[in-house]
Specification:
The chain has 295 residues and is of the alpha/beta class. 33% of the residues lie in helices and 17% in strands. The chain is built from 10 helices and 12 strands. The strands form 5 sheets. The protein has a 3-stranded parallel beta sheet with strand order 1-2-3, with helices on one face. Strands 4-5-8 form a 3-stranded antiparallel beta sheet, covered by helices on one side. The longest helix is centred in the N-terminal third of the chain and has 15 residues. The structure holds glutamic acid and zinc ion. The site of zinc ion has 5 residues, from loops. One of its GO terms (cellular component) is cytosol.
């Protein structure tokens, strides 16, 4: 059984760029070729990033999806209701010595880390706490995050949009956190456990998450799961060439809804800017360039 997913983070309003990505995931899941093999679409709310989660944003994201005509087969699944699953995976990684407790502060890493290989990434972790081995004493609760040991080998995958992507996790990414210091799972851990347990075979998301794909592939393998296929799709940029944000004006879907704009207009804009024909879906047709907002 093949499965895709919609994975909104309720950290704020969903905007036009998010809508375009969700529509691509939806069209891909609903395309004829895939329907024959029984692909389902799962809605999952990624609300583990606690301080940034907004109480109103989950219901609004669901309403936004429905408004632009997207439906799904299972869910919504809520990540904060699945914490025991992430804890079990973490316990396995601790037993396997794949992670270590890291007490470094952001400032420590900023000062001692090396320059990131990918854009918009933090400094590469200098390895300060990595000599810890399974069975060694664990620091005081709340004082550390669990960090995954990035392996010194080449990882490659074939992205449905970007083609072959490769990197060396140890050199290009460094050891990365899979929990926060308060013990809650990080995005990387929750996503991998969910994608694995939900049987996700195709991940469609913005190309700003390409570096995370390598981290996630390492986590899938460490947990004994096979990684899904990835489609990292172009982002929507503001007229200044930067990623769509508040300063570019109000592109919230909820605002368009309040203004009485027809959702079909948004779908039509997504069709034109992606150059995809939803009735005859083919990743080959996708416009590979980041698109400038002209809605
Ligand atoms: N929840 C993430 C977001 O809204 C998407 C993560 C993913 O697709 O893996 O940006
Ligand atoms: Zn550390």
């Amino acid at each position: 059984m093949n499965a895709g997913r919609l994975a909104p983070s309720p950290t704020g309003a969903q905007h036009l760029g998010n809508a375009r990505t969700y529509l691509l995931a939806y069209w891909s899941a609903r395309s004829t070729g895939i329907k024959e093999t029984g692909k389902k679409l799962i809605l999952r709310i990624e609300d583990v990033d606690s301080p940034r989660v907004k109480p109103w944003a989950m219901a609004q994201a669901i309403e936004d999806l429905r408004w632009i005509g997207i439906d799904w087969d299972e869910g919504p699944f809520i990540q904060t209701e699945r914490l025991d699953l992430y804890q079990k995976a973490l316990d396995r990684l601790i037993q396997a010595n794949q992670v270590f407790p890291c007490t470094c502060t952001r400032k420590d890493i900023e000062e001692a880390g090396s320059a990131p290989h990918f854009d918009h990434e933090p400094k590469i972790y200098p390895g300060t706490c990595s000599c810890w081995q399974t069975g060694d004493p664990i620091p005081e609760t709340g004082s550390f995050s669990w960090r995954f040991r990035a392996a010194d080998h080449m990882v490659s995958f074939n992205d449905l949009v970007l083609g072959t992507q490769s990197c060396n996790p140890a050199k290009d990414l460094g050891d990365f956190p899979i929990t926060q210091k308060n013990g809650s799972p990080s995005y990387q851990l929750a996503v991998v456990v969910d994608d694995a347990l939900m049987g996700i075979t195709e991940v469609v998301r913005g190309n700003d998450l390409i570096a995370s794909a390598f981290r996630q592939i390492e986590l899938f393998n460490a947990l004994g799961y096979s990684p899904p296929t990835f489609a990292h799709v172009p982002l929507v940029l503001g007229p200044d060439g930067r990623r769509l944000a508040k300063r570019h004006g109000d592109t919230r879907l909820s605002t368009y809804r309040e203004q009485g704009i027809a959702p079909e207009r948004i779908v039509q804009w997504a069709i034109e800017s992606t150059q995809i024909d939803p009735a005859n879906f083919d990743w080959q047709d996708l416009n590979r360039d980041d698109v400038t907002l002209d809605f």
